[in-house]
Specification:
407 residues; L-amino peptidase D-ALA esterase/amidase; Ubiquitin-like (UB roll); 28% strand; Arginine biosynthesis bifunctional protein ArgJ; transferase; EC 2.3.1.35; autocatalytic cleavage; cytoplasm
Length: 407
């Protein structure tokens, strides 16, 4: 596996474009197109929130139907959530317009929306945006980057990555882009992730690889504990690498899934680290667990603790908050056996041993916790399993961004 430059346009046959439709923002791009030169096999995972946005319902139908897709239309600023039958109608209007201007089957057009909930979509502006996107589509790395920028809301930076793998003697590329900063607590979140690959792969294998990986990547991040109405991950495979077809249970499938994991984990961590108002990516790693599930529950409880998140913001080694969060997680463990460490580029320090504080330097701990990426490692000494979860610190900036988000 090799990391390469680029995102959604890195794989053969994929193009992208960006446009400023003025849906909500007046000073930036707010629409993106991902386009494949040939129809793609598709896979997807979606929010577990009972309140699902219209684009989520639309995409679920497309993915479940088995229809091939050649385009994804994404807008930022307006979520098209809680908009009733009218909102679902906007999805059909979007797909029909994309089909018209791109010359493709509208029934396979996929849609992503993010932004304010409850606001109706200015559909004529959206249609005009699609018309602007079509002639601009290009396969350049720059086109992919600009598309990644266009789907941002409160994000401070675009998020993209690409890798290559060898399937027998053929090079296969996987690239992706994502957005997400607030309302992040996946069981999916107001996160959108779009992944493209030129692999020849069965739909069953594509969906299986994605569904198996999401619980350990996107579902292990949290910014604010709010599971969004719009969370969507879409994976498109156009087969233009012309490799031997990848099927479930083969070594090639495992290699593809490992590469997909690199893509998903990278994008998930970028979302967590770019949380609204955040100054640091905060990772909780639980080791020595008796089961994977126990480790995941404990790690997620730590990164979701607001008191722990504020301690990270203050660079304060307030370890009692971490042990407390583990205690109410629902997972069973012996608190009198837990060892806890903090680690960053500035070093590693042990804070507690067997549930009680060791004689550590507060000054050294503060230095370690002042880095832009910080890890808490909890060893529960019960077995060989481990898991990581990712979040961010909680600052005054989160309130400033969300107190007047609609305006």
């Amino acid at each position: 596996m090799e990391r390469i430059e680029g995102g959604v346009t890195a794989a053969k046959g994929f193009e992208a474009a960006h446009a400023a439709a003025g849906l909500k923002y007046k000073d930036r791009t707010d629409m993106a197109l991902i386009y494949s030169q040939v129809p793609c096999v598709t896979a997807g995972t979606f929010t577990t929130n009972v309140v699902k946005a219209a684009p989520v319902k639309w995409d679920q139908q497309v993915v479940k139907s088995g229809k091939k897709s050649q385009a994804v239309i994404v807008n930022s600023g307006i979520a098209n959530a809680c908009t009733g039958a009218e909102g679902f109608g906007y999805c059909k209007d979007t797909a029909d317009k994309a089909g018209e201007v791109l010359g493709i089957d509208p029934e396979g057009v996929l849609i992503g929306s993010t932004g304010v909930i409850g606001k109706q979509m200015p559909i004529e502006k959206l249609k005009a945006g699609i018309e602007a996107l079509a002639p601009k589509k290009a396969s350049t790395l720059e086109a992919g980057t600009e598309a990644a920028k266009a789907i941002m809301t409160t994000d401070t930076k675009e998020k993209e990555i690409a890798v290559t793998i060898q399937v027998k003697d053929t090079t296969v590329t996987i690239g992706g882009m994502a957005k997400g900063s607030g309302m992040i607590h996946p069981n999916m979140c107001t996160m959108l992730s779009f992944i493209t690959t030129d692999a020849v792969i069965t739909k069953e294998a594509l969906q299986s690889a994605l569904s198996e990986d999401v619980p350990d990547t996107y579902n292990m991040i949290s910014v604010d504990g709010d599971t969004s109405t719009n969370d969507t991950v879409l994976l498109l495979a156009n087969g233009m690498a012309e490799n031997e077809e990848i099927t479930c249970g083969t070594p090639e499938y495992e290699e593809f899934k490992a590469a997909l994991h690199v893509i998903n984990e990278y994008l998930a961590k970028k979302i967590a680290g770019d949380g609204e108002g955040a100054t640091a990516l905060f990772e909780a790693k639980v080791i020595g667990a008796e089961s994977k599930e126990q480790a995941k529950v404990l790690a997620k409880a730590i990164v979701c603790s607001n008191l722990t998140k504020t301690a990270i913001a203050g660079h304060d080694a307030n370890w009692g908050r971490i042990l407390c969060a583990m205690g109410y997680s629902g997972a069973q463990f012996d608190p009198e056996k837990v060892d806890l460490f903090f680690e960053s580029q500035a070093g590693k320090i042990q804070i507690i041993e067997n549930g009680t504080a060791v004689d550590y330097s507060e000054e050294e701990a503060t230095k370690i916790l002042s880095e832009p990426e910080v890890t808490a490692i909890a060893d529960v000494k019960m077995g060989q399993e481990s898991a990581s979860a990712w979040g961010c610190d909680l600052t005054h900036g989160y309130i400033e961004i969300n107190a007047d988000y609609r305006s």
